[in-house]
Amino acid sequence: MNTGANSGAIQPVSRAESEALLDAIERGCVERGLDRRAGVFGPDSMCWRVHREAGLFLGAGRAALLQLAHPWVAQALQDHSQVMDRPIVRFHNTFRVVYAMIFGSQEQAFKAARNLHGLHTRITGEMREDVAAYHRGSLYQANEIAALRWVYATLMETAVLAYETVLGPMSAADREAYYAETKTLAALFGLPAEALPADWNAFEAYCRAMETSDVLGVSERARAMGQNLLTGAGSWVKPPHWYRALTAAWMPERLRLAFGLPFADEERYAVERARRVLPGFYRRLPRVVRYVGPWHEAQARLAGRGVGPATRASNRFWIGQEELP
Fold first, then answer.
1. CA-to-CA distance for 83 and 282, rounded, in angstroms?
2. Looking at residue 7, what is its pLDDT?
3. Which of 108, 124, 215, 265 is spaced 20 to 30 Å from 321 by Cα?
4. Dihedral sign (CA 128, 221, 96, 215)
5. H helices then E strands: how many in the chain?
6. How far is CA 325 from each of CA 101, 104, 130, 188, rounded to the nearest angstrom?
7. What residue spans of 69-193 are helical by DSSP H?
């Protein structure tokens, strides 16, 4: 799969193409006999099993930085949003969409997909400077297949990395099953299956190739946004030192240096200690804390119950509101 920025013309995802993907997902749900309240994955899916874990928050900083390393993403945030000056808002915006797609009903998942496509359609502009393979004055577009693929990849690969940090390695079969399911999530983003690597090994190869390619590069503004993110600027959430160190450890070296992330002996010690302590601590957490609010909300919906106060409080942390949109 070609990762180059100049490998061809921009390939935006049209409304018709997005709707065709949603139609295919809906047909698949009908064929599987899936209750519409269970969404597009359902309670027995690997996506529910993985994404219910609050431990995935460990990777939020890494995923956000890898996205900022794509010059289109950084420029679009600079031109169309102020959320990188308020990291908690970007966190809520991202998780609100992803959790609606995974844990929402089918109606909620499809509405989230349509809203995201509409939002991305409006995010277009020109690069203001030369960054990596992108030249000043060249066009960017959020609803473009290669850009969408990278954002999707940062979320899915980081989810597995964080999951395995607190719960141990997935089996090869589970990892492959998870990746296969995430292709449905990618379709909700607007990505057809043929635009994605065929299996997990090919997916990892794509990620490694992107990290060394001229598609990624860190501008001064992206570096500043990354620093704001990891210091919790404008937010009541202040990431501790060990979290910042773990994020730095998970970054490719050239991007870690480009973002100016320290990784000396102090950070290495913090990472080693976190890796020793986190799994035992995490496994002892009560379900109400260990599993995210949107998963609890989905469980209540399937049981015909309302959303309780503990779930509402958890949702406020994860998605910035008391219930999935």
1. 30
2. 47
3. 124
4. positive
5. 16, 2
6. 10, 8, 38, 16
7. 71-80, 87-103, 106-122, 145-167, 172-189
Specify the pLDDT at position 252: 96
Distance of alpha carbon 183 from alpha carbon 195, whole angstroms? 10
The model's pTM is 0.93
Give the Cα separation of 318 and 229 in Å (integer): 16
Distance, CA of 68 to CA of 219 (rounded, Å): 9
Closest CA to 1 of 215, 180, 250, 255: 215
- DSSP label at 194? G
| Rg, the chain, Cα only | 19
Mean pLDDT, to the nearest integer, of 31-46?
96
Concatenated DSSP letters for 53-85?
BGGGGGGHHHHHHHHHTSHHHHHHHHHH--GGG
Residue 141 β-bridge partners:
124
Tokens, residue 11: 């390939």
Percentage of the chain surpassing pLDDT 90?
87
Tokens at residue 245, please? 């160190």
Residue count of the chain: 325
- Give CA 256 to chain center in angstroms: 19
How far is Cα 263 from Cα 167, in angstroms, rounded to an integer? 25
Quick one: how far is CA 29 from the chain centroid? 23
Burial class (CB in 10 A: 0-12, 13-18, 19+), 265: exposed
Buried b (16+ CB within 10 A) or exposed e, 194-225: ebbbeebeebbebbeebbeeebbbbbebbbbb
